[in-house]
Amino acid sequence: MTPEDIQSFLSNRFGTTIKIVDTDSYQVETPDYRLLIILSAQQSWIRMLVPIAPAAEAMTFVEEFLSANFDVTLETRYAMNQGVLWGVWQHSVAGLTTEDFNTAIDRSIDLKRIGIDRAFQDFATKQVKAIVNIAKQRGDTLAQTMQTLDRFYAEGILGDLGATEDIRTEMMTAWQYQLERLWHQE
Predict the structure, then answer these.
(1) Tell me: the pLDDT tens digits for 144-177?
(2) Tag placement on the chain: N or C end, fewer CB within 10 Å?
(3) Phi-psi sector, 15: left (phi>0), alpha (psi -120 to 50), beta
(4) CA dihedral defined by 83, 85, 91, 96, rounded to 10 degrees?
(5) pTM of the model
């Protein structure tokens, strides 16, 4: 693709939502996402960015984002800059095809749609696995582990002491599900 092809492609795909910032950069803003598309000064590379979350919200999950970069995100990547967690994709303009560009746009938008949810789930799973491992090392059964967690909630070590019985029941049901799901994997 040429820089002119890129501008034409973006105009065709996004219509009036595409904003031409200058000859080297474009912005697409919708209620769901904002894409920034930037050509290098020599117009030999293109970079696409999508802001995902404030870095402060994402810092707890840095390990999960780096693991996702290795295993899940394919040609898109998570990156942090200017206090923001970004979805980033870059490619040489000379080797870029419309199919690759279209796929990169879809995957970048998908990173925004997922937000930090996948990283949170991966983090939570890792924590539950640690609880399972510790319980098994102590010789506890699944039922004993649930009793311990229930006691922790009752004493305010976990959760909120002021939580209603419905909220506590909901939390314990979630723990039961996760522990049963992971008990035999560890």
Answers:
(1) 999 988 888 888 787 777 778 888 888 888 888 8
(2) C
(3) left
(4) -130
(5) 0.79
